[in-house]
Amino acid sequence: MIRLPPYAPGMRIGLFGGSFNPPHEGHRLVALTALRRAGLDALWVMVTPGNPLKDPAQLPSSAERFARAKTFFRHPRIRVTDFETPLRVRYSWQTVEFLLRRAPGVKFVWVMGADNLAGFHRWRRWRDIAKALPILVVDRPGSTHGAAFGGVAGWFSRARLPEARAATLCNRRPPALVLLHGPRSPLSSTQLRRRDRSADHAS
Ligand SMILES: Nc1ncnc2c1ncn2[C@@H]1O[C@H](COP(=O)(O)OP(=O)(O)OP(=O)(O)O)[C@@H](O)[C@H]1O
Ligand SMILES: O=C(O)c1ccc[n+]([C@@H]2O[C@H](COP(=O)([O-])O)[C@@H](O)[C@H]2O)c1
Questions:
Q1: What is the pTM of this model?
Q2: Which of 13, 106, 152, 161 is 20 to 30 Å from 39 by CA-CA measure?
Q3: Which residues lie with the beta carbon below 6 Å from any ligand 2 atom?
Q4: DSSP line for 75-140
Q5: 3 state SS of 34
Q6: Domain assignments of the chain as residue spans, ordered by start
Q7: What sequence ranges are listed for the domain Cytidyltransferase-like (predicted)?
Q8: pLDDT of the residue at 112
Q9: If you average pLDDT over residues 177-191, what whole number do you get?
């Protein structure tokens, strides 16, 4: 049996998947923004076994990334989980399908940064994900335009809600999308890995 964080019918839960290699303040900003502006009861930080669009070489195990994320995200409404690893998930549509079956009545919303929406058309069965649950996107420097006008923007045009309606997103019938603007973080895991590598070289 796959273990999940606590849930109950009617709860509003954000699903925030990522590599988290390592976690950083940009991730925290997304998590807190989603909790607050969508009025979520909880946010699950889902440490992926591996983004299918990224090179898995050099990716620490999900156990290592999970441990680090658990230490990093200390918040009463944030739960870190790596259930996608025992579930042997490769693509997010599998996660969504599993959760909707396993936790009926929970109001799930998919949470992502703007760069992920800009590349969403490359995700396996992205239309099925979009038809299965609402999507909340938090702006990210460098991806504002791509998220608003990129590959999937046309498809979402009628499903897009104004930011002021973000708190209603969990109750919307999908497809439904909100693109949130506000405080942004320029941080990335790539940048942190580079910084760690140069510190190693210097010492
Ligand atoms: N600074 C940020 N602002 C907004 N969203 C972010 C930011 N950093 C990461 N995210 C979002 O967090 C989720 C997990 O991202 P991920 O763990 O790949 O971090 P990353 O910094 O993009 O990593 P990498 O640099 O290794 O690609 C994705 O939805 C991504 O869009
Ligand atoms: O399902 C897909 O095709 C797919 C393609 C790219 C990314 N994802 C998921 O998107 C989330 C963010 O990934 P990342 O690497 O940008 O942190 C994570 O849960 C990935 O598994 C999923």
A1: 0.98
A2: 152
A3: 17-19, 46, 48, 51-54, 91-92, 116, 123-124
A4: -TTEEEE-TTTTTT--SHHHHHHHHHHHSTT-EEEEEEEHHHHHTGGGSTTHHHHHHHS-EEEE--
A5: helix
A6: 12-202
A7: 15-195
A8: 98
A9: 97
Question: Ligand 2 centre from 203 Cα, in Å?
Answer: 34
Q: What is the ipTM of this complex?
A: 0.99
CATH architecture of 12-202: 3-Layer(aba) Sandwich (3.40)
| Contact 92 CB / ligand 1 (< 6 Å) | no
Phi, psi of 130 (to 5 degrees): -65, -30
Give residue 139 CA to ligand 1 midpoint distance, Å: 11
For the chain, the average pLDDT equals 96
- Nearest atom in ligand 1 to the alpha carbon of residue 139 is 4
